[in-house]
Amino acid sequence: MEVWIGTDNDRIKLPITPAVLGVDRSLDIDAESVVKLGEVDTSNGMKLKTIDLEGFFPKQDYSFASNNMDPYGYSDKLQGWMYNETVLRIIITETPTNMLCKIKDFNTREQDGTRDLYFELNLIEHRPKNIPRLDNNGNSNRPISTNTSDTQRTHKVVKGDSLWDISHKYYGKGSIYKKINEANKNKYPSLANNNIIYPNWILIIP
């Protein structure tokens, strides 16, 4: 398993797989009181996902580490992205995680005299604003997707897309992204090894 974080032109691989790696998902649900019925739930959709990572940047030359930077080099890089509110992409190989995000919290400390730099990193999902415009009659100008037996649906990948997001767009459920992966393996053989997609790919939506 590898953890990659960064932009298209500037990214890093964490030198050691984090000891703690968690993804939090939650639904935004409110409770409302209805006369003679009591409380009912109302949903406002999914909250932004968060990812928590805990580990260390090694100063020592450990055999299991793949570091090519000083511990404080990693720290400075992550701090710069956080202060500039840079939109990043985190990819965790061997998992479905391939998500646009920003750094919400980043804490570091030295603790055992080795000069290894321990860190706690909290990432929050970045969801681009895509609000449909309304015409003068209040109708949405968002294109309506059609799905007929005579027309094969396709999706042109743009920067920031992931299989999870595309699956959620077309099926209303991101967790079935493997359906799209399987349908496009012949056209894009790299999908047999991972879920990474690239701008301008034309994906079949089965």
Automatic annotation (TrEMBL):
SUPFAM superfamilies: LysM domain (SSF54106). Residues 130-153 are annotated as: Disordered. The lineage of its organism: Bacteria, Bacillati, Bacillota, Clostridia, Peptostreptococcales. Residues 153-205 form the LysM domain. PROSITE patterns: LYSM (PS51782). InterPro entries: Bact_Kbp (IPR052196), LysM (IPR018392), LysM_dom_sf (IPR036779). It comes from the Bacteria. This is LysM domain protein. Residues 136-151 have a biased composition (Polar residues). Pfam families: LysM. It comes from Paraclostridium bifermentans ATCC 638 = DSM 14991. Transmembrane segments: none annotated.
